[in-house]
Amino acid sequence: MAAKRSGAESKGSGRRGASPQSGQEPRSEPPLSLERIVATAVELLDAEGVDGLKMRRLADRLGSGAMSLYWHVGNKEEVFDLALDSVLEYRGPPEIVESRDWRGDIVHLLEDWRASMLRHPWSASLLPRRALGPNILIRLELLSKTLSGAGVTDADLNVAIWSLWNYVIGATITRANFDLSDDDRAAAQQRLTGLSQHYPTIERSRLLLDNDWDGAFRKGLDFLLDGLAPRQ
Amino acid sequence: MAAKRSGAESKGSGRRGASPQSGQEPRSEPPLSLERIVATAVELLDAEGVDGLKMRRLADRLGSGAMSLYWHVGNKEEVFDLALDSVLEYRGPPEIVESRDWRGDIVHLLEDWRASMLRHPWSASLLPRRALGPNILIRLELLSKTLSGAGVTDADLNVAIWSLWNYVIGATITRANFDLSDDDRAAAQQRLTGLSQHYPTIERSRLLLDNDWDGAFRKGLDFLLDGLAPRQ
DNA sequence: ATTGAACTCGTACGGCGTACGATTAAATTG
DNA sequence: CAATTTAATCGTACGCCGTACGAGTTCAAT
């Protein structure tokens, strides 16, 4: 029964490297490892999108056979889970000082979260349908604590967190996908203009042409925070 | 629509049993049509989820061969587009009266939108990555007009619309996916409780156990609307 | 009776995830 | 040292998938 190595990662198992002497190997790829697989999967996802991640292609990039991956990984879904989690890792602020400016802290946390996902546009769509990994839980915990410390009552806390979650997820998924299809944007606007008598208001406000995603995210977030914790 | 024509010459060797619909055949499927294909695709999606929609299975349900679908439809993606659009159709309020209560109107519009998508849990995830169809544009136009009439300035209009869009999309995608995996929820909570020293705040607020999705949606929406158009 | 457009569908192809077992390299044991 | 056990790799094969291709069928208009 080959017990596949699971989650626990042991560092420092560094045998194997002791044989570069045998010069016949034209190319000695480093050995397969979970870390290498996940890192390469992220690269491949970044380059080719969700549909571009195939086990064979991943193996190609790793210089291995396709089936070798299954020693380290249960199945393809697990590759997605691991890649997603690795991308959401939070390198928090180096100094955890008690900030006076809780709003600024929250805005920073959420903008960083969004930026992390936009750096890997496949990640946002994946996040809501997979179980919550540790890295995203860390972010939620920090968010929770900050809100709580800012005076949001326990009764409102969950609503506040989910509202911010919804906002960030919705904004990032939308942005990531619109980003990928500029032509579609243009086509949609074309269609819209042609039918301006049907949609006069959104045509007037040029809703689909507004390119200031970052600014809109920030402004909308400010509105939401105003509602969640009005400054008295 | 799409006229597909490929040169078909008759060679004339007509043998192949089982042809006529004359009396003896009990099966009398109605002929294929776009509407029937789309309606059946929605049924299949509702029953089996996004991954359950296969061209062969769809054809089975329609009592046709798989390739027959391609006369009416360009490819599988188009089936998704059509199914999505059909599900988002807006049966607006029968009377378009000028309501005094613009907030109530907006809440109703958004709750109806969310409900429509939750009735077909595959739809929310699909919406952001496909081009905007007419039905969703109608909803956006109505939303736009109502907000504008409520006093939201043109400068804030796009931000307001996208904020509400983000909120609804994020909330519905999250709800739809969490809904599908109750076991995962329990498992996540289990894991969370086990690690409560790492996530004390979200553990205390029982974030993942809060089941009042509808209430949370409504409350968060109220907060957001408070921020967007504060009642003075 | 003939035609041609509208429609249906059987077959085939390449690509996918992955089960299975053979194979090899490394570590451990005697 | 040899023998054996374990960790890791990978070739082959299977069953599905979307769909290209082109032949077959129906039917209204001639």
TrEMBL record, chains A, B:
Gene Ontology MF terms in the entry: DNA-binding transcription factor activity; transcription cis-regulatory region binding
Keyword field: DNA-binding, Repressor, Transcription, Transcription regulation
Region ranges (Disordered): 1-32
Keyword Repressor recorded: yes
InterPro entries associated with the record: Homeodomain-like_sf, HTH-type_TetR-like_transc_reg, HTH_TetR, Repressor_TetR_C, Tet_transcr_reg_TetR, Tet_transcr_reg_TetR-rel_C_sf
DNA-binding region boundaries: 54-73
Every HTH tetR-type domain range: 31-91
PROSITE patterns, A to Z: HTH_TETR_2
UniProt-listed Gene3D superfamilies: Tetracycline Repressor, domain 2
Coiled-coil ranges per UniProt: none
GO biological process, one term: negative regulation of DNA-templated transcription
Its job: TetR is the repressor of the tetracycline resistance element; its N-terminal region forms a helix-turn-helix structure and binds DNA. Binding of tetracycline to TetR reduces the repressor affinity for the tetracycline resistance gene (tetA) promoter operator sites.
Name recorded for this polypeptide: TetR family transcriptional regulator
Organism: Rhizobium johnstonii (strain DSM 114642 / LMG 32736 / 3841) (Rhizobium leguminosarum bv. viciae)
